[in-house]
Amino acid sequence: MSAERELALAAKAWPFEEARKLLGRLGDRPPQKGHVLFETGYGPSGLPHIGTFGEVARTTMVRRAFERMSDVPTRLICFSDDMDGLRKVPGNVPNPELLQPHLGKPLTQVPDPFGTHESFGHHNNARLRAFLDQFGFDYEFLSSSDCYRSGRFDAALRRVLETYDEIMQVMLPSLREERAKTYSPFLPISPHSGRVLQVPILHTDAAAGTIVFDDEDGTRVEQPVTGGLCKLQWKPDWGMRWYALGVDYEMSGKDLISSVDLGGKICRILGHRPPEGFNYELFLDEQGQKISKTLGNGITIEEWLSYAPPESLALYMFQKPRAAKKLYFDVIPRAVDDYLTFVGKFAAEEPAKRLENPAWHIHDGAVPGHRADVSFSLLLNLAGAANAESKDVMWGFISRYAPEATPATAPFLDHLVGYAVRYYQDFVRPTKHYRAPTAAEADALRSLAARLDDLPVTAAAEDIQTEVYAIGKQHGFAELRQWFQALYETLLGQTTGPRMGSFIALYGIPETKALITEALGRGGATAA
């Protein structure tokens, strides 16, 4: 056994814990199909979103961890439930009048309101693939419509028909009384209208592979469950899919725990062990409410990626997946700096520690040596102090602070500079509020300006920090936190701020003295 495999088998990071569940599932022999199959699911009635990214990213992390433990090949399927009927016309599409006459039809039979693909389902599937490709995920795309119509699910659908009564015994206790009266796991496609019908099934014939139902116009129809003439309700469909494809691992949100349980029972009835997996917690908004696509009370993936690199979002998905986390704009700077910290530690860590480092899981072990001479939070403070509207302004300060860093030699830092300017302009600048210093604070600021005069313009951040501390103590601040709070509020117009020594070293001693002069002027005082 290789040293890397030994370390992986002992690693404690949650993707390795999940991977060990798969090893236990395999026992001493590889699966008959010759590979371990991971799956993620997608409902293409809308566009891919931040939850889609999270599920594929987390599943990929488990897959890569498993590959360090076993030589058994792996595959990841991204499954689109595009056989689902269109329930309502989305409010964010062009030409909505094209969709209205096709309500109830499978999404791959609904015209594309964007006019770019053969159907609305095909359009959204293309968007999903482009979305996943943007992040470099290794996956295989599967369409529900293709699987049903090509016959790939035929044997499984006949098996559902054979075990119809057992599946009904699983499903009926989970339904409201009124719903249970007409429920069937089968949703026939109307031969008249092409719509997915939620109608009572009047008779089943397992030998013939058919069901009997009344069509929308009252016509009694006997129709095969195979060949794309029928689909399953989504919970039985989930269990059937696990059985038909041989899925070994699939994770899902905490809100689907009961659905996973039902799907697992159906999968066992059909004759397959349900996949391994776990239920991750849901994201919350700033007020602690569950994020809803309908309400639009969260942050979209496009918004996150406007202000931070994708690696920071991957880190956010890695950290504590079983804990509810708030997902709003204020979490972005911390996520970026945490990512930089983990990447910075990686090279010096022992092999075992590297497997616990989130950067290993984000980059599948090939962690880049990003050069980032300045933290993201410090860049934001620099943007605020300089009122930056472009990267050029920021690089004027950075080049003086770290002369060897340029946009060409530090491209990742250059990206961060652009993100910081955009974040500052959109979120920090509108909330900036400078207050005048109190008399005691003004005295301390004058002393700080005088002390800065005694330092060389190239003074190190730690030396400057020592002087800032000394001034706070000299002027009798009961808690030094009050002194730093005063600096943030009077010099930067913010309630929170950076380590002042680092900020002054980056922004410049003469420039910081100019901020002090401005602050003293707000109180009607002048620098000594």
Notes on the structure:
With 528 residues, the protein is mainly alpha-helical. Among the domains are: 284-342, no CATH class; 376-431; 439-522, Arc Repressor Mutant, subunit A (Orthogonal Bundle). The protein is built from 23 helices and twelve strands. Helix 19 runs antiparallel to helix 20.
Secondary structure blueprint with pairings:
Layout: H1 3-10, H2 14-26, E1 36-42, H3 50-69, E2 74-80, H4 120-134, E3 140-143, H5 144-150, H6 154-162, H7 164-171, H8 177-182, E4 186-188, E5 203-205, E6 210-214, E7 220-224, E8 230-232, H9 234-245, E9 252-253, H10 257-270, E10 279-280, E11 283-284, H11 301-307, H12 310-318, E12 325-326, H13 332-346, H14 351-354, H15 358-362, H16 376-386, H17 391-401, H18 411-428, H19 439-453, H20 461-474, H21 480-492, H22 500-507, H23 509-522
Parallel strand pairs: 1-2, 2-3, 9-10, 11-12
Antiparallel strand pairs: 4-8, 5-6, 6-7
Main traits of this protein?
9% strand; 23 helices; mainly alpha; Arc Repressor Mutant, subunit A; elongated
Looking at the structure, the CATH topology of the domain at 439-522 is: Arc Repressor Mutant, subunit A
Q: CATH first level of the domain at 439-522: which class?
A: Mainly Alpha
- H/I helix tally: 23
Measured between the Cα atoms of the first and last residue, the distance is 72 Å
Report the major sheet.
Answer: 3 strands, parallel
User: Ranges with pLDDT <50 over ≥5 residues?
Assistant: none
Percent in helix: 40-55%
Radius of gyration: 30 Å
Read across the widest sheet, the strand sequence of neighbours is 1-2-3
State the CATH architecture of the domain at 439-522: Orthogonal Bundle
Average pLDDT confidence is 93
Overall body shape = elongated
Strand content: 5-15%
In total, how many beta strands?
12
